[in-house]
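Researcher: Next sequence.
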Amino acid sequence: MSKPAIVRVMKRIFANRKYILLVRWIFLLGIAYCFLFYKDTLFASFESLFFYPVIGYLVYFVIVSLRGITFIPLTTILLVMVPFTNHWILLATTIIGTLITSYIIYRFSEALDIDDYFEKKYPRIIKKLRHGFNKYEYPIIIWRSLFPFTPTDLVCYLAGTLEVDIRKMLIWVAIGETVICSIYIRGINSIIA
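Model: Next structure:
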């Protein structure tokens, strides 16, 4: 039986995540370079993107919603956007996009062979998390969502393989991500203000 087109496309994106991550690093280094040497031009470029805010937020929403397939950390995308956006709209857009990514990882991890990827890349972490999930499902979900620079996508994958209730998982991810994203937005805002 043939896999649906969406699964084939997502599998192709997941298979090429190395190139996507390379492009991400080049983009971030370019932003850092421009920030250091061409700050006014950089701000003008982003302000023109958000001149029509719906377009800017829509582009950001799509990136945040699909980033889970490539395991691009949310932190880097969020930190780039903070200086140029309304913080409440940015937070709401980020949380909704994160919930979509979490749902995609939960539902499609087996079809995308994400299980093989995680089992090979993080065998010790997977073993510890599986053991922890058996005792403390929801505290582990919220803790991993709250802890900076850790893959929330990993927790969503495990929740899917262990058949954790998806509604409860999404609620705990939303709580954890709301707290950590609020801290990021507030912290970056206080630095640049």
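Model: The chain has a mean pLDDT of 76. The radius of gyration is 17 Å.
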